[in-house]
Structure formats: C-alpha cells, structure tokens
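Dear H.,

Thanks for agreeing to be a second pair of eyes. The structure we're designing against is below in token form, covering all 60 positions.
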C-alpha cells in the first residue's frame, strides 16, 4: 500500500473511511480552505512514490 509509507514520509495522518473504496484506490479530500502549494507538494510526493512501483498505474 502506497498510503502508509507516504504518510510516514510526509507526517500525515491516515483516516479510515467506513465502507470506503477498495484499497487499490487512493483518494484525497480537500477542505474549502485548502492551500494549493501543500496539495501540489502532496501530489508530487505521491507521484514519486507511485513511480517506484511497477505494479501501479498512476493517473497523476
């Protein structure tokens, strides 16, 4: 799973969704007061992590 090492690297908290999507899909939610630079940094780190895994297809 990509979310766990990425969360550790960035110091993020993981929250479990009740009846959420399959583990193969990563979702991220943004509030109204989101900061574009933080979102871009997160997506850049996620893309780098996904590129290390040949079994994963990234749509970023």
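And this is the sequence the design step returned. I haven't edited it by hand at all.
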């Amino acid at each position: 799973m990509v979310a766990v090492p990425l969360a550790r690297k960035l110091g993020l908290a993981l929250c479990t969704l009740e009846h959420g999507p399959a583990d193969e899909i990563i979702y991220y939610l943004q509030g109204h007061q989101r900061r574009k630079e933080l979102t871009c940094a997160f997506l850049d780190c996620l893309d780098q992590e996904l590129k290390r895994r040949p079994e994963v297809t990234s749509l970023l």
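Two observations from my side: The CA atoms of residues 35 and 41 lie 10 Å apart. The longest helix spans residues 36-51.

Warmly,
E.
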